[in-house]
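User: I'm new to structure prediction. If I give you an amino acid sequence, what do you actually give back? Let's try with this one:
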Amino acid sequence: MKDKVYYTPQEVAKALGIETYVLRYWESQFKFLKPERTKVGWRRYRKEDVSRVILIKKLLYDEHFTIKGAKQRLKDLRNEGQLDLHHTFEESRKKIILEEIKRGLEKLLTILNSK
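Assistant: Good question. You get back a string of structure tokens that encode the predicted 3D arrangement of the chain. For your 115 residues, that looks like this:
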């Protein structure tokens, strides 16, 4: 995921391995996930929004919270002052870059082994 000011829903979904309809659903369920809209109504995510999506995905997919449980956990993190959205974005970005490098190296290894 390139470092830029705004990301499209498609870019966010692809980078995080989810579908765009999932993003729309999460926007309806998590009130703190409100990406900006362009004049024509297209959604665009800032780094902070992407960090929120990463947190939601982690709670739902990795930690197996329900929607209700994830909302409560996010509320608890906010109250405890442990909601670090900048750190979340940067960590995820690094992970995505490393995964891209790994896939490229695996392809290169396959090519080298076939010769």
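You can read the tokens as a compact description of the fold. Here is one thing that stands out. Residues 9-113 form a domain with the Multidrug-efflux Transporter Regulator; Chain: A; Domain 2 fold (CATH 1.10.1660).
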